[in-house]
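Q: Sequence in, structure out?
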Amino acid sequence: MLHTRTFTLLLASASTALIALPAFAQDQPADPYRDTVTIGAGVAALPDYEGSNDYRITPVPAAIGAIKGYGFVLAGNQLSVDLIKDKPGPVWDFQAGPIAQLNFNRSSSGNIDDLRVRALGKRATAVELGGYVGLSKTGVLTSPYDKLSVTLGYRHDVSDVHDSGIWNPSVTYFTPLSRKAAFGLFASADIVERGYAQAYYNVSAAQSLASGLPVYTAGGGLKNWTLGAIGSYSLTGDLLHGIKIVAGGTYGRMEGDIARSPLVAIAGSRDQWLGTMGLAYTF
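A: Exactly. Output:
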């Protein structure tokens, strides 16, 4: 699964209304922390690899929730947990916790349409472990229930596939429009270390002969930035319970040495789009 950070932001943004809006319920529980879990599945249109101009449709599972004030997000191939208990109500809130992700970028040649990139060979699946910190505020602009979050994450490959790290700053804003509908916006970026850039975007002399792409050595730095939107509408119940449809999309732009790589500049595109739609159930 590619563009995993972007898709994780789509799903995590949709969960904000479910986790942070207990006051939307008609009957307030004695416990100020409302346990909520959302499970869902959908389909996403993703580039064949990060920087490709060919797209494919893939199924995506998800699970999002909060138990006694501790939040978690399982979005496809990434799991994150907030180990700092959320405070109920319109307050400032700190987040920090671990992240684990499987990076499938170019791990299957059969999923790459471009024969030149396919000739470069595939990469093993990378296991990336790390953590994140963040700060959020509930009750910002539209109501006591909208939420603005700023986070910074870092993951490092522990499987020797690229043996380097990825930084992920992001900003997310989410607001309920009614008891049944909610909408969000977000921005994020990926900043990669040299090992990541060279593992996925280098072209060696032997690879150049096999593919016809020019020899290239990539350096680290800003890989891409992304802007996105997400919406959720309850088909049964409301934002806190029942079946809902979730849809979103992003536009991203590849940058720096990676954007100049032949995999992007010749065989792909700096402009990257992602779209997803699915059903979820909250209980």
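Confidence is low (pLDDT under 50) at residues 1-8, 20-30.
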